[in-house]
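User: quick one
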Amino acid sequence: MKKVFEKINFIWQKFKKIDDKFWDDLEEQLITSDVSINTAEKIISDMKRKSYQEKISGPEGLRNLLKEEIADILGTGGKRELKYSDEPPTVYMVVGVNGTGKTSSIAKIANMFKKQGKKIIIAAADTFRAAAVEQLGHFAEILGIDMVSHQRNSDPGAVVYDSLEKAVARRADIVIIDTAGRMQTSYNLMEELKKIKMVVRKKLGRGPDEVLLTIDSTTGQNARNQAEKFAESVDVTGIILTKVDSTSRGGIIITIKNDLKIPVRIITDGEKLEDIYYFDAGSFADMMFS
Amino acid sequence: MFEQLTSKFEDLFYKIRNKGKLSTGDLEKALREIKLALLEADVNFKVVKEFLSNLKQKAIGKEVMESLTPAQQIIKIVNDEMVKMLGSTSGNVNFAQNGPTVVMMVGLQGTGKTSSVIKLANYFKTKNQKRVSVIAADIYRPAAVLQLQDMAEMVDVEVYSAKGSDPVEISRQGVQKLTRSGSDVIIIDTAGRLQIDEKMMDEVKRIKNTVKPHQVFLVLDAMTGQEAVNIASTFNAAVECDGIILTKLDSDTRGGAALSVYYVVGKPIKFISSGEKIEDFDIFHPERIASRILGKGDVLTLIEKAEKVIDEKKAEEFYRRIEKQEVNFEDFITQIKSIKKMGSFDKILSMLPIPGANKTLKKMKFDQTHIDRMEAIINSMTVEERRRPSVINGSRKKRIAGGSGSSVNEVNRLLTQFSKTKQMMKQLSGLKGKFNLPFGGELKL
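Assistant: Done. Structure below.
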């Protein structure tokens, strides 16, 4: 996690006094971290205003201001664990663009709950991609949990329906739905997601307890579009930020939270099943400037 | 693809075009807007800086500002710089003189390597008439081998795989075996890896040193942010890439990776992949993409696509029939089918040089099912009805509606639409020579 804003630390030492060059450099640092221009400009104008009001002029003071700014945007509420329903089964639906790491994230989440002794069923509702079911099945086998799957190209809604039936019959605690990767621009596929969500609502009388969107942390400004479009169609409750072990910049999460109010909930950062954490917005800002 | 950047440039050019003279202030403003547009599009920060300083240098010259059409000149400079940014040659693959051409594909996880391997295999197979086979060297991701096998079956290419052994060894043996079995092109699908994972990067180097591929392609997700150039440089430093395959261009990507990588790393984008279908894969043409980004459409690609699906003889026949006003539903359905073969309607429209087309397109969701319904209705007609729509009376309408699962209303609508189109065609045919029908006989402009 530290990686995300590593570079911003340098600039404090570089500048003895605050001038236009300082602000330009700071903006550049934010943008090269994939923070959007609008967000970067907002952060900087807020900082300028506050530094004027509070008569802060040294780099050290501004560093704290930036930290405050980012903490403000991300929220200081600490980590928010996934919602767990009193009425089993709890349903998590995982959505996202192709190749962002849905299947791996599901395996990691399942492993996390398995360790807490929960009974889990995975719904293999990616009926489109070649070998998607087999990939998920491999994880289910390692974890020793049940998976419901149908034939290739069958209706994903039916897979979800069967999974919920099975979950109720076997008194499973959690159902995790894996969906096919899709571009947020594909109208038909986004409509399909709504249908999948409806299946849950019809069967349980309530929608999925969490709808989680996986975002690849190396993604640029397009991540904001992804979040916006997926939220429009299935009301995303949180983001799983994946591949944070790359030299990812992840600045996009600040933009997404600032513009769309969708928080990052989970972070994954490695190939192992244990490489998953709840995102703690409060300590994130601390860490960035430690 | 690149819609956002396109609409920004369209706006900007529209603004400056309407000015007779440009002041230095106008120019500064335009440059700032270009800067913001590029940064918002994920173009690498350093690239943007350099792009702007080049632009400024060229634009500030006396000839431009004092010319009669400064705006035109600036647009031309932007265009030229954009082409430079994208690389000036389009992707060509050199095949080996003797023996099979070995191609190695590398990249991060989830960029679309396996799909690209199959799409590329299919491309070589259909476009170059090569016998292509693939090697499954990703032993890490569960079911990766199976995915490759499944997809290879769809395009009918041979797969070499071996369980549990080392990817270097699999690649070596695969190349050996597939060479013996007479492949012209062998494509190696390697595992996804992070560019900072030293162990995995070392492995890919060893594969390269062992099989000595003729071409190494880096598969890069078009939605990658500022990190794109680092990814490309690190892979290039490790295995010296010959080119880049840019994937997921069907997203509303802003194309920053495309605009940065060549500039920084000096390796051209060879192919682009833009959809779930195996055919959604093509050679990258920098000048066409530049033209598209700058809102001038991509007519060349459109013509190529049209040429692929249109039977010239049939088209000529169709043209004659328009002149004689003999067009019927059979022609209609042939036209629908040709257009459908060219891809989705929004894709086609986005290639037309209509100012603002991209913006309008974004607002309307083109309903492809409408076309499907038209087709269904026509399919439910008898041969006679298709040839002589005038015979369609009330009871026939009912039958057609029933057969196509539509209503009499819908059949009526189609009939009206048809007679209107026919009239329009009649008028247009008078303009022959000056104006070409979209899918009429002569496509030469």
